[in-house]
Amino acid sequence: MTIQTNIQMETPSGVAVTETPDGLRALKDAACAAAVWNRQPVPSFQNWIDHLSPDHLPSMRVTLHPDNIRAAMTQACDAADLPDSTGRQHLISDVTALADTFCDLLNPPLLRLRMDRITTNACRRFHVDALTARLVCTYRGAGTQYGVSQGGAEPEQVFTVPTGDPILLRGTLWPEQPSSGLLHRSPPIEGTGETRLVLVLDPVFER
């Protein structure tokens, strides 16, 4: 298995890479199984979040109306005793903006928001999520890994989404025929001492 860490150099068929949020709409193209927004990093923010104590990283799982994302993120930062700063405000605003972009694409009445602190091999098996679509953005640590499966086997070539870049992934409920074979996983980090901070957004159409 080979791992490709720079998605700008090469991507498998069916994965779109965009420089703008509007480009994520490529997910609706018939041949597109995932879309990555390749963003310019903000060095001051990345340095700030990389050096935070893991205890002060916000963590929550909640289902809510899209209009309430900013308030929920603020509460999660308060619960983690994360002091007010430019970095904190950037994180809250970025999560809110990504939620807006996600909702503009799928128009769900509700969102399921997860902000996870991860130190283990969470979801280390390659898989497809049992939902319509999912947005994942890793703010700290190694990004989501993905690749194309042949005949149900693990991908031979694995790509890693850069830290800070959102990826939109189709799930099993997306009306896709035939299947692209694109699978993804969380990178295995157990035993490395690394703490990842990962945002996951899922659309909720029924309760």
Plain-language structure description:
There is one protein chain. The protein is of the alpha+beta class. It has three helices and eleven strands, in the order E-E-E-H-E-H-H-E-E-E-E-E-E-E. The chain has helices at residues 43-50, 69-79, 86-106, and strands at residues 2-4, 15-18, 34-37, 60-64, 110-118, 133-140, 145-148, 157-160, 167-170, 182-185, 196-204. The strands form two sheets. The chain has a seven-stranded mixed beta sheet. The protein has a four-stranded mixed beta sheet with strand order 1-8-7-10, with no helix packed on it. A hairpin with an 8-residue loop joins strand 7 (145-148) and strand 8. Helix 1 crosses helix 3 and helix 2 (69-79) packs antiparallel against helix 3 (86-106). The longest helix has 21 residues, at 86-106. It is globular, with a radius of gyration of 16 Å. The N and C termini lie far apart (40 Å). Residues 1-9 have low confidence and may be disordered.
